[in-house]
């Protein structure tokens, strides 16, 4: 069973004032594929202990104080959120405005908004986020290694330049030719020795 470990962090979203922004359908995924939903399709928090409903301080800026969390025994997390952009006509109307203060379950709030023609959605993916354990030593060497993926040896990933491949084939051909000549000479020498002994 995997557990989630948490610590405080702040998410901040900003853009120009042409649109009204709603962040929704946020999930967090670990490297092996396990996924947890943070915000539903309306932008409402699914689990307020992981991430509460976002607070929008302007039409295009929103955020929330949250917990840094990770899956046990997994160093990296990948966040995926969708951003709904709608043209601002007067007041900014968001599906998340109707979210309950505590996340109880999913509701279809988006259908209550009338002007769906002015809505565009954008997927936002994060780079990997690494959360260290309290007992993990953090030094410059371990931080530099975060960007490097461990190399897995696979013969399909081997790429040899054409010139090198040609040289290797030529050397192999020469080795086979020399082996054939040496074998032929040894056979001839053996026959000549047998002929001399029989005389």
TrEMBL record:
Matches recorded under InterPro entries: CUT_C (IPR057475), Cuticlin (IPR051962), ZP_dom (IPR001507)
Keywords: Membrane, Signal, Transmembrane, Transmembrane helix
Source superkingdom: Eukaryota
Transmembrane segments: 165-188
Keyword Membrane: yes
Domain (ZP) ranges: 1-106
Keyword set includes Membrane: yes
Name of the protein: ZP domain-containing protein
């Amino acid at each position: 069973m995997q557990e989630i470990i948490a610590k405080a962090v702040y998410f901040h979203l900003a853009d120009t004032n042409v649109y009204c922004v709603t962040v929704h359908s946020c999930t967090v995924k670990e490297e092996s594929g396990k996924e947890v939903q943070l915000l539903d399709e309306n932008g409402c928090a699914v689990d307020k202990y992981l991430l509460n409903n976002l607070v929008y301080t302007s039409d295009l800026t929103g955020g929330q104080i949250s917990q840094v969390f990770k899956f046990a025994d997994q160093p990296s997390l990948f966040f995926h959120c969708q951003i709904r952009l709608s043209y601002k006509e007067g007041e900014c109307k968001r599906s998340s405005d109707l979210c309950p203060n505590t996340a109880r379950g999913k509701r279809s709030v988006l259908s209550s908004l009338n002007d769906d023609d002015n809505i565009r959605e954008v997927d936002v993916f994060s780079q990997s986020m690494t959360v260290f354990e309290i007992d993990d030593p953090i030094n410059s060497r371990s931080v530099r290694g975060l960007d490097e993926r461990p190399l897995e040896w696979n013969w399909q990933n081997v790429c040899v330049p054409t010139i090198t491949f040609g040289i290797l084939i030529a050397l192999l051909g020469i080795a086979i030719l020399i082996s054939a000549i040496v074998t032929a000479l040894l056979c001839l020498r053996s026959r000549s020795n047998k002929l001399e002994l029989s005389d």
